[in-house]
Amino acid sequence: MIEADCLSKHYGRLAAVDQVSFKVAKGEVLGFLGPNGAGKSTTMRMLTGFLVPSQGSARIGGYDSIKQPMKSKALVGYLPEGAPGYGEMTVHEFLSFIAAVRGLKRNERIKHIAQVVEQLQLEAVLYQTLETLSKGFRRRVGLAQAILHDPQVLILDEPTDGLDPNQKHEVRLLIQKLAQSNKAIVISTHILEEVEALCSRALIIAQGRIVADDTPQGLQQRSRYHNAISLISPDYHAIAEAIRELPKVVDVEILAQKSQVTIVPEKGALILDDVEAWLREHAWSITSIYRETGRLDDVFRQITAGVRT
Ligand SMILES: Nc1ncnc2c1ncn2[C@@H]1O[C@H](COP(=O)(O)OP(=O)(O)O)[C@@H](O)[C@H]1O
Ligand SMILES: [Mg+2]
């Protein structure tokens, strides 16, 4: 449904986006993950046909975003970075305007508007002008206009930016539901839990380039904490000192605020059974113990740090 083929965008000598290629199928949620200035928004603008690429091309449902803009745009719902415009319109006027632009018939307009107003909980602000809305509401109005015509493709630039934790949760549930209805979705985020919660695949982007293309699980496996054992114990300090003697342990870290010890194994080693046997043998008292899946923030830092020039 979405294809980027060697997309590049140059601003003077800066390659904001550099030879980016990927595909997204129906039912997939692709996450763009990257530090500020990585080129996420620029890539999304080119996908949606709002920015002409310096090189390469983008296709939506097989239609070129620049050469066939009417056909490609009709398939896409787009939430741009920041808040959408027309500050003097009320939420209801704005959604009615978008519905008309999207070519929905009168009875469809009423139905679709009622549906997004409910999905994004906009009842309370329906007759308020956009410029008077809080950042969270403005973001939700932006999402409402993106999904209004029930598009097959959604391009959402930081959809949960500026929302409080409850609103973030609601919007994530909504995106999960949209993905289940067989849409192809791209979201950008710098929030790692969001990738774990939402995405079937993640592209890590740094300085305009794709530096990793993997599932969230695949990325976690690259972490040095993949299969590490973390335990909490009143004796955490003594345990941390003594457990270094165990085979296949390469490092032991302490997090004093949580009375936590993390035991990092050799790459590929599974040490939970050995650690538990060792703890029993030495009769340490343990509050909790678990095997880590891996830490995305650690992988993210490791991958993006190597790219800096
Ligand atoms: N219109 C523009 N003119 C010049 N530089 C730009 C323009 N738009 C974006 N950039 C630069 O391109 C890079 C990528 O920006 P952007 O795509 O907004 O990153 P992200 O969304 O990942 O934070 C940044 O260095 C930014 O300053
Ligand atoms: Mg951005």
In short:
The protein is α/β, with parallel strands linked by helices and 309 residues long. It has helices at 40-47, 69-74, 91-101, 106-119, 135-147, 165-180, 192-198, 216-221, 236-242, 272-281, 296-305; strands at 2-11, 14-24, 29-33, 55-60, 63-64, 76-79, 153-157, 184-189, 201-206, 209-214, 229-232, 249-255, 260-265, 288-291.
Basic shape = elongated
How many helices does DSSP assign?
11
Tell me which CATH architecture of the largest domain applies here.
Answer: 3-Layer(aba) Sandwich
How much helix is in the residues?
25-40%
Strand order of the largest sheet: 6-7-8-3-9-10
CATH fold-level assignment of the largest domain: Rossmann fold
Q: What summary fits the major beta sheet?
A: 6 strands, mixed
Distance between the first and last residues' Cα: 34 Å
Average predicted confidence as pLDDT: 93
Please tell me how large the radius of gyration is.
Answer: 23 Å
Q: Topology as H/E string?
A: EEEHEEHEHHHEHEHEEHEHEEHEH
Beta fraction: 25-35%
Q: Compute the number of strand runs.
A: 14
Bound molecules: adenosine-5'-diphosphate, magnesium ion
Which structural category do the helix and sheet elements fall into? alpha/beta
CATH class of the largest domain: Alpha Beta
Could you name the CATH homologous superfamily of the largest domain?
A: P-loop containing nucleotide triphosphate hydrolases
Number of discrete domains: 2
- Contiguous low-pLDDT stretches (5 residues minimum) are none
